[in-house]
């Protein structure tokens, strides 16, 4: 293709010059022999899929708790949807789709039980010990807490996958001053890790990481509409008022009058997803033509996020998020269950801090020699790794009354 959108390839032809080349990977913290059959990024993807943390995503909440129905998204199904979109976008720009998929598959490893509810409570409880951040926790999981291999802790992922995990949403610190870009303290786990393995947190991530990040936004915007309608917390009348989704619903109703609710919902959400994906492809293709990066290093030094929505779509997508926040995430029924889940996490944290030997097996090892900050980190690691169901089981084991989260 020549001229506008010349960098769109839809998976055909050779890898783009600005793509991450697995043959030039910066390697792993612990050197390993190369595989004769898989690239470094394929090995990363496979290690992620076979990890314990990946399996746990099956029973971790997205918005609706797992007992509420088999058809609602969990962290696992959300992750699979993100990976599918990320691969599609990566192929559109002739990127390394294995790396994009690996980053998409690992991006939620640090999430607690009960979705953002658990994260918020742990962040509050850990305020005196560096707080809690799910992105930093994901780094701890893949570099320390997964213990499956004989020669190292964690998964020993490649530099490029770790870089994408840590900064897929953009640089964390200002290149000139070293100050954090969000005004907060750099998460403890990230600061500790990059001190020994520099992930260049003052530069932009690869395009593979950037497509994984925007795929996350696209996936949860669309599937939360679907789940909200399925749960009866959103109605089509409400959806008609939502930016992007409302106009899409109107088009569906015009083309398919009298469509049953399940098909009406699916036709609407899939068109919303398609509109966002196509917008990203168009906008990003134009940005690549303008910036003309000649290498992955040019992407790192571009000074801007290249993979993004157009200004018009960004405004509509932000409006859709505001709609979902007000109508779904802060719905009375969701907030009631969220309050109950907060109590479960708070109870578990306080109980384990008071009597750490109550934690499971190896988690209780050496706790008698720990000071309070070390113990708090151990307890947070233990709770963050729990599924919703295990957290409730632990609460029932330790307390006389456990909420039903309904």
Automatic annotation (TrEMBL):
InterPro entries: dGTPase, Diverse_Catalytic_Enzymes, dNTPase_2, HD/PDEase_dom, HD_domain, PHydrolase_assoc_dom. PROSITE patterns: HD. It comes from the Bacteria. GO terms for molecular function: triphosphoric monoester hydrolase activity. Keywords: Hydrolase. Pfam families: HD, HD_assoc. CDD domains: HDc. Residues 75-221 form the HD domain. Belongs to the dGTPase family. Type 2 subfamily. HAMAP family: dGTPase_type2. This is Deoxyguanosinetriphosphate triphosphohydrolase-like protein.
């Amino acid at each position: 293709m020549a001229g506008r959108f010349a960098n769109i390839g839809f998976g055909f032809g050779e890898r783009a010059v600005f793509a991450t080349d697995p043959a030039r990977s910066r390697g792993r913290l612990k050197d390993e022999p190369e595989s004769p059959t898989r690239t470094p990024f394929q090995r990363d993807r496979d290690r992620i899929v076979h990890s314990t943390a990946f399996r746990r995503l099956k029973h971790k909440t997205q918005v609706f708790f797992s007992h509420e129905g088999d058809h609602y998204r969990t962290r696992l199904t959300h992750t699979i949807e993100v990976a599918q979109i990320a691969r599609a976008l990566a192929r559109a720009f002739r990127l390394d789709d294995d790396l994009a998929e690996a980053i998409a598959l690992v991006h939620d490893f640090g999430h607690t039980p009960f979705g953002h509810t658990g994260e918020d409570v742990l962040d509050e409880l850990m305020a005196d010990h560096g707080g809690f951040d799910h992105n930093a926790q994901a780094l701890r999981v893949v570099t320390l807490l997964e213990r499956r291999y004989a020669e190292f802790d964690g998964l020993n992922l490649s530099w490029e996958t770790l870089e994408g995990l840590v900064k897929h949403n953009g640089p964390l610190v200002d290149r000139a001053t070293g100050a954090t870009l969000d005004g907060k303290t750099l998460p403890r786990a990230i600061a500790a890790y990059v001190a020994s393995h520099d992930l260049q947190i003052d530069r932009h991530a690869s395009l593979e990481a950037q497509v994984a990040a925007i795929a996350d936004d696209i996936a949860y915007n669309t599937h939360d509409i679907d789940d909200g309608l399925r749960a009866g917390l959103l109605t089509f009348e409400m959806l008609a008022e939502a930016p992007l989704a409302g106009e899409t619903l109107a088009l569906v109703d015009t083309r398919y009058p009298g469509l049953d609710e399940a098909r009406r919902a699916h036709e609407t959400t899939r068109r919303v997803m398609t509109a966002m994906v196509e917008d990203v492809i168009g906008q990003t293709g134009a940005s690549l033509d303008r910036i003309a990066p000649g290498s992955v290093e040019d992407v790192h030094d571009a000074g801007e996020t290249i993979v993004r929505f157009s200004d018009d779509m960004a405004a509509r997508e932000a409006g859709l998020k505001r709609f979902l926040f007000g109508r779904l995430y802060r719905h009375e029924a969701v907030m009631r269950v969220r309050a109950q889940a907060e109590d479960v996490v708070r109870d578990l944290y306080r109980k384990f801090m008071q009597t750490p030997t109550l934690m499971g097996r190896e988690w209780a090892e050496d706790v008698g020699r720990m000071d309070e900050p070390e113990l708090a980190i151990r307890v947070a690691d233990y709770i963050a790794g729990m599924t919703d169901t295990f957290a409730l089981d632990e609460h029932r084991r330790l307390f006389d009354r456990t909420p039903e989260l309904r």
